[in-house]
Amino acid sequence: MSWAIGWDERWKRDIGYGVPAFCDHPGCGKLIDRGLSYVCGGEPYGGSRGCGLYFCDEHLHVGVRLPQLCERCVARKEPFAPTPDTVTWLHFKMTDPSWKRWREEKMKREEELV
Fold it and tell me: What is the phi/psi pair of residue 95, to 5°?
């Protein structure tokens, strides 16, 4: 199994080291990916302690006894709002031939809702 691209049901967005993203800290804007190196909690979906959002090195705190956590999870507060997908990632999903089946299924689901 690869962690290149997956889906996070909680945050309703693509995750994995193959997904370019912005740091989820408000106002940061640093380009990272949504791989395990950047996830709050250090495990997929945040594990048992993290929120599962993604942060650059400046905004992800690594402790001796705790997993890597964002400042909100260190303080046991509600998580930040996630940042939107990058334009680069959205363009890739909408144009790359490898995502053709996904686009067709998405369009079919949307048509069924109308």
Answer: -125, -25
> Same domain for 33 and 69?
yes
Report the predicted TM-score, pTM, of the whole model to 2 decimal places. Answer: 0.90
Number of domains comprising the chain: 2
In a shared domain, residues 111 and 61: no
- Amino acid type, 73: C
The pLDDT tens digits for 54-84 are 999 999 998 777 789 999 999 999 999 999 9
Tell me the DSSP string of 12-59. TEEEEEEEEEE-SSTT---EEEESGGGBTTSSGGGTTTS---B--TTT
SS3 label, residue 100? helix
Give the C-alpha separation, 7 to 22, whole Å: 17
Q: Which amino acid, residue 75? A: A
Pair (37, 11) in one structural domain: yes
Give the range of the structural domain holding residue 33, as residue numbers without chain letter: 1-83
